[in-house]
Amino acid sequence: MSKTPFIPSVPARSEGDFHVSASSKLAGYRRFFGVLSVIRKTDGRQLFPFDGAPELGPYATKMEALAAAQVYGEHIVAADLANPEL
User: Fold this and answer.
1) Beta strand 56-59 pairing with 32-40
2) pTM score, two decimals?
3) pLDDT tens digits for range 37-86
């Protein structure tokens, strides 16, 4: 039997119920990738990245990669508010 405690999924009610962290990383000459982490604070569930998550890039500039990560994070939050993944 597993000793991992059961934590029930609790849907978020607003954008404030998420922790979104967006940044960028350099992976070669002029190859920037967005780095994103989205966590639902109500139950601690990590919504992004997940197994098989798409790479955010490559982009020519750091600002483009950062903007792409921020926009993708907003989409994930909006989608989870509309249809929570429990």
Assistant:
1) antiparallel
2) 0.88
3) 999 999 999 999 999 999 999 999 999 999 999 999 999 999 999 999 87
CB atoms within 10 A of CB 24: 22
Q: Where are the domains of the chain?
A: 16-81
Distance of alpha carbon 62 from alpha carbon 74, whole angstroms: 19
Residue 80 contacts by C-beta under 8 Å, 6 or more apart in sequence? Answer: 11, 12, 18, 40, 47
Main-chain phi, psi angles of 34, to 5 degrees: -75, 140
Confidence of residue 19 (pLDDT cuts 50, 70, 90): very high
Provide the b/e sequence for 31-52 (b: ≥16 CB within 10 Å): ebbbbbebbbeeeebebbeeee
Q: What's the pLDDT score for residue 2?
A: 59
| Angle at CA of residue 16, ends 13 and 18, nearest 5° | 85
